[in-house]
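Journal club prep — side note

Before the paper discussion, L.F. wants everyone to see what a predicted structure for a comparable chain looks like in token form. Sequence:
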Amino acid sequence: MPRRRRDDDDDDGGDAYRRHHHDKRPRPPAPPQQKHLYLVLDDWDRGYSIHKLDVVLDDAGVIHGGGGGPAVRFAAPRSSCDARFFPMRGDSVVMVSDAAPTLVYDTGAAALTVESPLPGLLAGGMAIAMPGGERLYALTSLGERFPRAFEVLSTGGGWSWKNAPVAPPPPPFEEAVAAYAVHPDGHTIFVSTSGDGGGGTYTVDTKRGEWRRHGGWLLPFHGQGFFDAELDAWVGLPRHGDTICACQVPSRGGARPPEWDTMDDDDVVPSWKKSRRRPGRRRRATLTYMGDSKFCVVDSVECDGDDGGGVVTPPQCEVHVAVFGLKYNRRGELKATARRAAGSFRVPKHFSWFSPVAFWM
């Protein structure tokens, strides 16, 4: 008996059946979202710009700048000298300043929102984003004779500043914050201060709201240190020298300074090493943690405002961006891995105090 030829109605019915009875086979996982470096520069005469960079990590890695201009610009008064940028949850970059509202740039949505300003003034320039980007703590003060307090910016239920239930720092806490880092427990912040009183290192437990002084020693890096689980250490830029520092995490209840080591100068990423050989030029460097023992150094070198023909040009700087991994070799020495990337850019500079910084998201 010959098979009946399926007509159009039969075909439609089969298609409808298949649409309502999904294929049980597992779907392949979605490819991971590609990340980028977001470089913050003071290359705009009215404020700051964020540029989206592509990074290729291999033996001859390169960093490509976006050819379509900045991803976003932040307007800021020229009198402002305290603008700080931080990575937060949701692939957002947050700008905090004494003189302006808090600005939040969502890199995924390419959207900029304006939030309430920081209550008070940044005391000692200390502000730190906690691991995971859920909270941003800022040490603030209403003036010289007023006690310092912690304000916390949280993403829960919208961006908002709230007073953190943390006691003021104990004396003799100095005004100038030299270094800080978050303990692996996720809620204890180590803070080193310097000043006429000699300085020292403290911890603040953001859960208990308590401070503790650990001694007159300082953390070996300046600015923020970043914890890496594989290295089991904080990584930062050392107070003295131009390389990378790895520091053991001290005990929360102890008083002894931690041991630390630096990367050998010959192991520094070549483009970064080249930028350091500019005697007499003002240089600034910042460090960013990218996860999985990978880091990014942004080194800026101010250039002369002269085009070589005697014509004075607006201030400019050379920005050198270096991405690299870190590991300990068999002898316990801190080394850079072979997979690295670098790029250099010459850009205008409008705020002499500002240090360009990058975020990986």
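L.F.'s comment for the group: The CA atoms of residues 168 and 339 lie 44 Å apart. Keep this in mind when we get to the figures.
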